[in-house]
Design goal:
single chain; Rossmann fold; 3-stranded parallel sheet; alpha/beta; 3 strands; 92 residues
């Protein structure tokens, strides 16, 4: 089973990708600046595809919040910590 994190999850392309991955049986975490809208997208995906999707807040331009995002994401999903390097900035 795939585990997919989608940032900017409220955009039209992200919504379409979320549905595609959900129909394929993936576990999803959808994050966006607007937490309420991200939750609505996650609920919509869940209803349409029959797969539970989690949601959270992520603001790409708020660099100070990036280091706080991963622990929150990791705690909510309980996904493997060995993937952490993929979510960190490449220049660190």
């Amino acid at each position: 089973m795939q585990k997919i994190l989608i940032l900017g999850a409220t955009s039209p392309i992200a919504r379409a990708l979320a549905l595609k991955f959900a129909y394929d049986g993936a576990r999803l975490y959808l994050a966006a600046r607007d937490a309420g809208e991200a939750q609505r997208v996650a609920e919509d995906v869940g209803v349409r595809a029959g797969v539970a999707a989690l949601s959270g807040t992520f603001d790409a331009v708020d660099f100070a919040s990036h280091d706080e995002f991963y622990p929150s994401f990791s705690e909510r999903t309980r996904w493997s910590r060995r993937r952490r390097r993929m979510l960190r900035h490449p220049w660190r």
